[in-house]
Amino acid sequence: MSTARTDSNPGVSVSYDKVQKSFGAVRVLEEFNLDVKPGEFLVLLGASGSGKTTALRILSGLETATSGRVRIGDRDVTDILPKYRDISMVFQSYALYPHKTVAENIGFPLKVRGVNSAEMDVAIRESAAQVQLEKLLDRYPRELSGGQRQRVALARAIIRRPSVFLMDEPLSNLDAKLRGHMRAELKHMQQTLGITTIYVTHDQIEAMTLAHRVAILEKGVLQQLAPPAEIYNDPANLFVAQFIGSPPMNIVKGALEGGHFVTQGHKIATPVKGKVASAILGVRPEDCNVTSASKGELKGQVYATELIGDHTLVTLKVNDSFVVVKASKDFTAKLNEAVGVTFAKNSIYLFDAETGLRVR
Length: 360
Hints:
Largest sheet: 6 strands, mixed
Strand content: 35-45%
Oligomer: single chain
Strand order of the largest sheet: 6-7-8-3-9-10
């Protein structure tokens, strides 16, 4: 019996068509439409309760959609059992068998399918090599680190050569250094195999570094779907603008009057013109500069400085708001010192405070 495709997998498309999901009276996914390209690494990003894991579980067959259809390639899989969907799922918890060796854990999907031992042994070694586990095949999960256990889970997913990888927060149990290493491994593996991958996370760094495209969800609604650079540089609304970026985007409340943003005695030239009585100005910390109080477009006092390593974060109190500036690592200032803030005109974002939508 074959272990499925052994050649390079070109990947298949995945689509959600008007998918809704309710648990009782609670709607957790609102008419969700999404098309994933063959071979794409797509990240579903959102906070807890945003609907991202529910969307993944509906695709896997672990949850049933209240309405709408789901397709993998040219097959409608909405009503098909999980085992017939040709997917592999990697969980946050690793889900390894403690009494089985690494080799036995990796090979388990093939054993269930009755693959002969010689063919299975070759497949196990090939999959283990792809995640650098060749020397650990005789160990048990209890003898492995968290990163090694996660690599076993990945190898077990790889060995089936599925049409689609589904990954639910697979790195969240790892420490920061190991997460960084595993991100690189995951990205390299996915690009090498070319298997369509849908990855759920609440971690924006994972989303920005791994994804071909990011789908941001909030309260069951798709907020924006775009490549990471577009999500960062051209956010569709205030939620996306503040969700992406560390530190988050600075926001100042005021009004848009013609080509100027007006707030508590300050008047700032803006890249867009219009009249919005309740507006929000957004600007990222790296697009701000600290200057003398007399030259600032906004004026305030130094509230705190934090040396991060390659830069210093400067928090300023501006009227009733706080503005964070990414300054050079050599920056120094006294507490409560009066300073100004300037920023390039094309780095300013404007939002309607009522709807949260961009003013363009």
